[in-house]
């Protein structure tokens, strides 16, 4: 399945002929100059300058909806299909081709708006209204992930021309494919030192890959984790069943040895059984994986398409299956090595190999004052056979862990506080002003209006500009720095704090990591043409803009501004929704969103994925708990049948005997849930942080819903295990006292 | 007064389609306070009869009336209740709970029955342990004591709930002759105190201590021998009873 994921992703990159370096730009452009520079650089295989018409969300209506997309944080770009590379693909991974009046919509909206082919999309501009018919959906190697706020819609060249004429504005993607993608760093430096457009955001191949893998990479990581856990549990189960079987057959083994069978003979006798079982199971697993893959890879298939059915993709899963098969056999052989330590006489005499035997303990029934007898006996049994119960405990810990960690993370990502991992302080409303010709004027009007608005409690304008940073080797890199007063809506810092002086800078986690900077280190910045030494005041987490951002209190230079953001809180009596609507009208085309909405739209896809993971892990955890509890208790009842017969002979009712076993399972489950919860809150948090550190959030603190995590989940497990334990011990009722006692 | 009455008891086992009738139309009455033994060759159905009339197994047909209840009509829980309150059972092999001490094994069913409070149960258990000569083994694990001592503990366990009747399936079968003698002396004494006892045995020395010996052959009770009540541990009288029984058994072709 993992190989399929990466196969599919790779396929998309190949089929779409992904660009290696993209510079976004708005404003005047000289295409000939770019082409000339590219041909002279020596690094570029091919380049193109792609036009995009930005259409305001407020003018777009999906399907039959009466509400426009004005609250969407996404930016809608209408484009034509590219001719040389960076192709926009349909769901068959073929170049999208649309007729006049038709439109191909990004898969992000197909999923979010539940769109299908034939649905309409209306663009309502002051001068005209255009209705498109959705003819296809677009896989966009650059803008697929929900974390990327730009989305490309493909229209016919004639429609494009009309839109361009009516909208008036055009933005550009200056795209390059390199001869050697490995020399991307070198190319970046070369480009930055040229006089080509540089004011817009820059994206490269590595960032596309990271962003694409973000949502589905999380699924892959969870699948790998769950698979490893299952393999571990499987080996423990094999160990348990093998030892239990050996114990059952101990006398027979002794007889075999006594009549001259060698250790090797006996070992082969048992090993052959497991060779056959493991081979069958591996073959079944291989076949089943084809069916199960579809269930968990809906998103992968939707966003990346299916990988080619090459021999390679058939062989890798086969190697994985063979590896598991070999692992199982190796493990069986290790367990069977116990034979080496046993003589025929030992085997005949003791009838035990020590693993599942009863150890002494000091719990005295006659000293027990409070517990009912079946419960006391159940608990005593667990303590006396703790080695054997280790398997069940491990499974319960694992079940709780895989149930609670995704739940915690889902809860965390949905909590308002998650905004801090997006490098933003918490506020009621966020207003985004993207790059445009009149951006500065609009910004000034916006600030004036907010300042005079009596409903506003406090506000914080933040300006993101591009600066040049001088590396230690003298080369220059771009650094997007947000400037403003960061004390108004404070952010949680991983280390240090917000910049307070003009020579201080706070770096995002990924930036700090890549630059090798810590709090107190200094870096050289070019500000208004002069070199300035900045001291790192703090490091914060940010998964936006590829995780590479910075914050400082630098002088305002309108020429280098990329975008403006104004965060504000309204006074308690003010209706947030009304305020947002008011600002939307007043500051059009600025994007006005409440923070929760912003968070949801940015991470919506990840949240959906997490929900899917939660469902997956929920069923795995429940299935695992049922399977192992049933297997374990059935085996235990079979093993204990003589003791059960004794209990029944002295008057224990079947229900009292079953209560003992349910007590054992529930006691182990309780410890399992406790440990699982502790591990989830510590190890799980570290694990999630480790995965998200690739995106820029290295220190995720779980926001825990105690009712869900500490009441509902344990209750579900308790219920499932109780019912399973009760049903699995039904055999205790059928144990014939007479037969067992006579044996 | 009749304590146990068995009428037309049959027991059949099926193995696939193959039917084996182990007990056939067995009829038996045990009076309260009686000490009865059942003898017979191996495979004659002695133990099976004992399990079926003590509520440890289900009969195929007929009836087993114990203290006014037909065991054949009882549910699984009711039958468990009979085993708990009305019946004591001593097995040939030591069937004690492995993970409990001697005392805990003895008191276990009393705790479950809740006839007495904990203190009374402990007193009763200690008294039984004194009578059976294992008072010093209270906190011993079952792996720490001899077979004879374990069988005494099993006797204590079978008596802890004051059952109406005590069943024994070769209770001395796994013991050496000295230990066996001691156990039988103990059972005789228990019977003298008023307890009804029914034993299955191969051992003429065991049967010689009982007052009625039944002979079983091919799943049926075919003969009965009444003896005087065994009143004292006199070696001569014991020998005499054993001789009487030997003659009887020879006449039966055993």
UniProtKB/TrEMBL annotation, chain A:
Keyword Cell division: no
Start and end residues of each ABC3 transporter permease C-terminal domain: 225-336, 616-736
Subcellular location: Cell membrane
Keywords on record: Cell membrane, Membrane, Transmembrane, Transmembrane helix
GO CC annotations, alphabetized: plasma membrane
UniProt KW S-adenosyl-L-methionine keyword: no
Listed transmembrane segments: 218-238, 274-296, 311-336, 389-410, 613-633, 665-695, 707-727
Membrane topology: Multi-pass membrane protein
Pfam families named in the record: FtsX
Highest taxon of source: Bacteria
Name the record gives this protein: ABC transporter, permease protein
Species per Swiss-Prot/TrEMBL record: Candidatus Carbonibacillus altaicus
Lineage start: Bacteria, Bacillati, Bacillota, Bacilli, Bacillales
TrEMBL record, chain B:
CDD domains per UniProt: ABC_MJ0796_LolCDE_FtsE
Alphabetic keyword roster: ATP-binding, Coiled coil, Nucleotide-binding, Transport
ABC transporter domain segment(s): 4-243
Keyword Zinc included in the entry's annotation: no
GO molecular function (one): ATP binding
GO cellular component: membrane protein complex; plasma membrane
Coiled-coil ranges (or none): 220-247
Source species, domain of life: Bacteria
Protein name per the record: ABC transporter ATP-binding protein YvcR
């Amino acid at each position: 399945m993992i190989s399929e994921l990466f196969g599919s992703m790779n396929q998309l990159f190949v089929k779409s002929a992904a660009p290696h370096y993209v510079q976004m730009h708005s404003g005047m452009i000289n295409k000939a100059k770019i082409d000339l520079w590219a041909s002279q650089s020596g690094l570029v295989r091919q380049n193109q300058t792609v036009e995009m018409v930005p259409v305001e969300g407020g003018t777009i209506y999906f399907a039959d909806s009466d509400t426009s997309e004005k609250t969407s944080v996404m930016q809608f770009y209408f484009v034509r299909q590219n001719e040389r590379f960076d192709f926009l693909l349909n769901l068959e991974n073929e170049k999208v081709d649309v007729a006049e009046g038709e439109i191909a919509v990004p898969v992000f909206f197909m999923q979010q708006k539940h769109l299908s082919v034939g649905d309409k999309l209306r663009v309502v501009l002051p001068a005209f209204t255009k209705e498109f018919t959705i003819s296809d959906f677009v896989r966009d190697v650059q803008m697929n992930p929900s974390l990327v706020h730009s989305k490309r819609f493909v229209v016919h060249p004639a429609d494009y021309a009309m839109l361009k004429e009516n909208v008036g504005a055009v933005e550009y993607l200056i795209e390059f494919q390199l001869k050697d993608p490995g020399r991307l760093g070198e190319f970046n430096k070369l480009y930055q030192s040229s006089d080509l457009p540089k004011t817009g955001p820059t994206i490269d191949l590595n960032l596309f890959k990271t962003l694409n893998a973000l949502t589905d990479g999380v699924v892959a990581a969870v699948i790998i984790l769950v698979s490893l856990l299952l393999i571990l549990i499987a080996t423990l189960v094999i160990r348990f069943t093998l030892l239990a079987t050996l114990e059952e057959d101990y006398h027979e083994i002794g007889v075999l040895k006594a009549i001259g069978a060698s250790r090797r003979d006996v070992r082969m006798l048992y090993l052959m059984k497991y060779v056959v079982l493991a081979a069958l199971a591996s073959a079944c697993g291989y076949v089943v994986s084809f069916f199960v893959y579809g269930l968990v890879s809906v998103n992968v298939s939707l966003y990346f398409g299916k990988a080619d059915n090459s021999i390679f993709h058939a062989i890798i899963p086969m190697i994985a299956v063979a590896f598991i098969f070999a692992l199982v056999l190796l493990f069986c052989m290790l367990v069977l090595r116990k034979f080496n330590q046993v003589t025929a006489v030992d085997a005949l005499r003791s009838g035990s190999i020590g693993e599942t035997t009863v150890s002494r303990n000091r719990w005295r029934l006659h000293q027990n004052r409070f517990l009912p007898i079946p419960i006391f006996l159940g608990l005593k049994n667990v303590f006396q056979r703790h080695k054997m119960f280790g398997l069940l405990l491990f499974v319960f810990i694992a079940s709780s862990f895989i149930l609670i960690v995704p739940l915690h993370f889902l809860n965390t990502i949905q909590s308002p506080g998650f905004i801090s991992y997006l490098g933003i302080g918490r506020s009621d409303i966020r207003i985004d002003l993207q790059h445009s010709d009149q951006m500065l004027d609009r910004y000034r009007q916006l600030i004036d209006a907010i300042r005079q608005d009596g409903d506003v409690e406090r506000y914080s304008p933040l300006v993101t500009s591009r600066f040049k940073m001088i590396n230690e080797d003298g080369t220059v890199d771009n650094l997007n720095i947000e400037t403003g007063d960061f004390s108004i809506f404070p952010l949680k810092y991983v280390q240090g704090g917000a910049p307070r002086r003009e020579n201080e800078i706070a770096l995002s986690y990924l930036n700090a990591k890549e630059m090798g900077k810590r709090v107190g280190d200094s870096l050289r910045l070019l500000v208004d043409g002069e070199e300035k030494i900045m001291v790192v005041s703090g490091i914060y987490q940010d998964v936006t803009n590829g995780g590479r951002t910075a914050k400082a209190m630098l002088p305002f230079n309108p020429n280098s501004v990329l975008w403006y953001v104004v965060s504000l809180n309204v006074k308690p009596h003010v209706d947030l929704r009304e305020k947002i609507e008011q600002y939307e009208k007043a500051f059009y085309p600025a994007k006005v969103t409440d923070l929760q909405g912003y968070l949801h739209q940015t991470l919506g896809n990840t949240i959906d994925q997490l929900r899917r993971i939660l469902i997956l892990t929920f069923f795995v955890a429940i299935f695992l708990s049922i399977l192992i509890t049933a297997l374990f208790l059935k085996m235990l009842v079979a093993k204990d049948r003589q003791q059960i017969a004794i209990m029944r002979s002295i008057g224990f009712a079947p229900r009292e005997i079953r209560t003992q076993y349910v007590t054992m399972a529930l006691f182990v489950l309780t410890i399992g849930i406790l440990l699982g919860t502790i591990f989830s809150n510590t190890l799980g948090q570290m694990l999630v942080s480790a995965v998200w550190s690739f995106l820029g959030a290295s220190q995720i603190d779980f926001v825990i819903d105690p009712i869900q995590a500490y009441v509902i989940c344990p209750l579900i497990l308790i219920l499932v295990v109780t019912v399973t334990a009760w049903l699995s011990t039904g055999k205790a009722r059928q144990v014939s006292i007479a037969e067992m006692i006579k044996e | 007064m009749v304590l146990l009455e068995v009428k037309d008891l049959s027991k059949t086992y099926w193995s696939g389609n193959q039917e084996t009738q182990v007990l056939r139309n067995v009829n038996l009455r045990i009076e309260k306070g009686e000490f009865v033994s059942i003898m017979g060759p191996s495979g004659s159905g002695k133990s099976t009869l004992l399990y079926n009339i003590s509520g440890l197994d289900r009969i195929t047909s007929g009836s087993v009336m114990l203290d006014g209840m037909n065991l054949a009509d009882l549910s699984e829980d009711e039958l468990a209740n009979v085993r708990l309150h009305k019946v004591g059972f001593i097995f040939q092999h030591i069937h004690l709970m492995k993970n409990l001490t001697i005392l805990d094994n003895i008191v276990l069913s009393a705790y479950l029955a809740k006839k007495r409070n904990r203190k009374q149960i402990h007193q009763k258990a200690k008294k039984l342990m004194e009578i059976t000569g294992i008072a010093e083994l209270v906190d011993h694990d079952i792996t720490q004591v001899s077979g004879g001592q374990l069988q005494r503990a099993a006797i204590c366990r079978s008596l802890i709930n004051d059952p109406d009747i005590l069943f024994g399936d070769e209770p001395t079968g796994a013991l050496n002759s000295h230990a066996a003698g001691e156990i039988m002396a103990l059972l005789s004494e228990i019977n003298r105190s008023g307890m009804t006892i029914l034993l299955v045995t191969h051992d003429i020395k065991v049967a010689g201590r009982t007052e009625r010996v039944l002979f079983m052959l091919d799943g049926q009770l075919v003969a009965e021998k009444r003896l005087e009540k065994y009143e004292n541990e006199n070696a001569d009288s014991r020998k005499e009873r054993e001789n009487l029984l030997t003659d009887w058994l020879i006449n039966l072709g055993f």
